[in-house]
Write a structure and sequence with these properties.
By secondary structure, the protein is α+β, with helices and mostly antiparallel strands. The chain has 8 helices and 20 strands. The strands form 4 sheets. It has a 6-stranded mixed β-sheet, with helices on both faces. The radius of gyration is 25 Å and the shape is elongated.
Length: about 375
Amino acid sequence: MTTAGTTPIAVRLVAVSKRFGDHVVVDRVSLEIRHGEFFSLLGPSGCGKTTTLRMIAGFEQPSDGRISLGGEDVTERPAHLRRVGMVFQNYALFPHLSVADNVAFALRLQGVAAPEIARRVAEALAMVRLPGLDARMPAQLSGGQQQRVALARALVFRPTVVLLDEPLGALDQKLRKAMQLELKALQQDVGLTFVYVTHDQEEALTMSDRIAVMDGGRVLQVADPQALYERPNSRFVADFIGVSNFLPGTVRERAGTLVTIALDLPGEGVGVRIQAAWREGLAAGQAVTAAVRPERMRLGPRGAPAGAAANGVDGTVRDIVYTGSDTQYFVDLGGSAGRTVMVRVPNDQPAGTRVETDRGDPVRVCWDGHSTAVLVA
């Protein structure tokens, strides 16, 4: 089974739902995950991402829908016959067994011969860069090493897909960031399909080839990290992936790849028009929300022309926050009682190009129309 681009489909979900009593946890989820892809299920707690992963693994049975692995329908197949590897957040290592025995545990249950077990355990530990640690006990390992042992255990029986349920959640922030890059590099080296569950949007953006954003048991958008960030299809996605400024307004007319929107701003902002990236399905008079990332905006003197930036709205600086790498300016548009936007200005800008402004100063916020996404939900 392949996609239009002839890339084989490793995991396919067709209208999969899961109910516990009257409560719908997963609601008609359909996904195609390609072979060799690092695919993330991203969303807040309770959105259904872990239940979706458990249904792929066979730990939960779908209430409706079908699940295929490598083109084979496995909806009714028990977990131990699905050839999927599972890595949990708490690693689930046996504290009384050595590293080698932890990795070999499933192979012994399957009755694999001892020489073959030794060879495959050594191979799996080499893949996760833990050679020579086979005799150590889990308590003698760092958190990162324990995580890699858990991954080796998932890889040792050569699964068709590896499922990872927030496996970095127990690590401190510095180690977690290092392990993100290491895990992605490992996935590329072994060439296996990884399906990764996380609530951390930065983690998903860093590691994934594609991401499915979930909320309320449903998949809201599936795209690569850049497309999700630059072209979210809903306010929830725009707000969950990074930070956005939201400006309500009404569609006026289309001009090529752009659309004109009349903003709904109070005070001096009444009637201000901006341009945004056109998307199919927009109609004149339609109420929409323009979404702009803070780093796409810049500050200038109040009343100055927007120039090449196309969009310019006057406002007043309400607050300034220094964060180290940048400074965040909170600007009330349309006068002091207007809608507030955040403008993020890098602190490494050359001398003479930085904005010199203070709280209460009048400014003009400018940005490019192509950097503005139009949200209809």
